[in-house]
Amino acid sequence: MSLTIESLNHQITDGHGKRQLLSDLSLTVGQGECIGLMGDSGSGKTTLLNLIAGLEPIQQGQIILAGVALAQASEQQLSDLRKTQLGIIFQQYNLLSSLSVQDNIAFSARLADRYDASLCTALARQLDIQALLNQYPLTLSGGEMQRVAIARAMSAQPQLLLADEPTGNLDDNNSSCVVELLVKLAKSHNTALVLVTHSHNVAAKMDKIYQLADGQLTLVNK
Ligand SMILES: Nc1ncnc2c1ncn2[C@@H]1O[C@H](COP(=O)(O)OP(=O)(O)OP(=O)(O)O)[C@@H](O)[C@H]1O
């Protein structure tokens, strides 16, 4: 199992006082399994990703990522886990503008001390970005930037990929292409994927779709 969430509760304090955002939420994601996470704006999808990434403290319940219980992990263990077991893909790509495409792809792998030149070459080929390797991010289209971001996230061979609206800035054609590549890569590398999206078309490409509402996840029929 790549990810297990057990009875997670999470409260936030906003202008209206305390609010229970996640309520006794549980989820398991197996190796290579691709999960779509949908839900209204403000339902807590990004907060759930942040908790899985160890970026927000767990208030109650447990998250086990790659065998590590996050609630008991030290800051150092969480940081190591993020470097070696997690790939994160954002809507805004978050590429490093001063690094070439090639160096962006290698970046996560070097950080995790897992650089493998042949894997980086294979990822570039699978994502059809070989011709862009010496270019810089600002010269790329949105779809190209997101394919580079996917290669970068995969280069460290993580157990789990988190993607927060990765196609939010892309048109329908690019969006389909990027998501299909993402799922194909996740499957071929046995990497689990949790992808947040507002698009039913994107979610339909995942193995399972969950709807987050009232702090709970419900499996949706595709
Ligand atoms: N640290 C925090 N303190 C107070 N409120 C917070 C905090 N983090 C998130 N929130 C609130 O929690 C709610 C859920 O936010 P979150 O970003 O997780 O929702 P979302 O489902 O990802 O929304 P969207 O689809 O719009 O991106 C929002 O009302 C947000 O304002």
From TrEMBL:
InterPro entries for the chain: AAA+_ATPase, ABC_transporter-like_ATP-bd, ABC_transporter-like_CS, MacB-like_ATP-bd, P-loop_NTPase
Domain ABC transporter residue range list: 3-222
Highest taxon in the source lineage: Bacteria
PROSITE patterns recorded: ABC_TRANSPORTER_1, ABC_TRANSPORTER_2
Coiled-coil zones: none
Keywords from the named record: ATP-binding, Nucleotide-binding, Transport
Gene Ontology molecular function: any one: ATP hydrolysis activity
Record-linked Pfam families: ABC_tran (PF00005)
PANTHER family to which the protein is assigned, alphabetical: ABC TRANSPORTER ATP-BINDING PROTEIN MG467-RELATED, LIPOPROTEIN-RELEASING SYSTEM ATP-BINDING PROTEIN LOLD
Family indicated by similarity: Belongs to the ABC transporter superfamily.
Protein name: Putative ABC transporter, ATP-binding protein
